[in-house]
């Protein structure tokens, strides 16, 4: 089975580079490749991206496009780190163009390589109607259609914004009929369950 993994920068670099997690992640993915899965990875920018964008805003007035370009470079840095760590066993890339996130690149990659599912690994277990840390009445979604998702979160992309899945990418996934699974990337046993077609915790959007 072919999958594209959108690896959130928030779990690569929550504040500093999480070497312990990356070791575990590489072992998990290497194991799945040995089992016959064909995997592609797109990396986000994480705290590195946010820090650089914040610094640029303080230093000078900047356009959304410039902030996006800065973010893209941080995703490429994370991608290069992962590429070297995997020893070129996995096709790994970062961002590409302003106005869209690495989720968008993941959907494009899925279309290009015939993957029917994008696995979005971030620091949340499910998609919620609001931030559950700030709003205790936030509703948990286990399944959504792309139409429902876009109605809930809108269709516009903002540099540095923190969506469960980039709305621009969501519209593209809807067009291509690609499914996304949003799950907590740190819970690697849960990811193993997904690959094994066992019950897992996460939100399915299709």
Describe this protein's structure.
The protein is built from 8 helices and 9 strands. The protein has 206 residues and is an alpha/beta fold. It has one domain (2-205): Acetylglutamate kinase-like (Carbamate kinase), CATH 3.40.1160. The strands form 2 sheets. Strands 3-2-1-4-8-9-7 form a 7-stranded mixed β-sheet, sandwiched between helices. A two-stranded antiparallel ribbon has the order 5-6. The mean pLDDT is 93.
- Number of H/I helices: 8
* H and E order: EHHEHHEHEEEEHHEHE
Question: Any idea of the CATH class?
Answer: Alpha Beta
The unreliable regions are none
Q: What is the total domain count?
A: 1
Task: Indicate the radius of gyration in whole angstroms.
Answer: 16 Å
Rough shape?
globular
pLDDT averaged residue by residue: 93
Please provide the count of β strands: 9
- CATH fold-level label: Carbamate kinase
Fraction of residues in H or I helices: 40-55%
Q: What characterizes the major β-sheet? A: 7 strands, mixed
Task: Quote the distance from N terminus to C terminus.
Answer: 18 Å
Strand portion: 15-25%
The structure class reads alpha/beta
Superfamily at the CATH H level? Acetylglutamate kinase-like
CATH architecture: 3-Layer(aba) Sandwich
Brief digest:
This protein has 206 residues and is of the alpha/beta class.
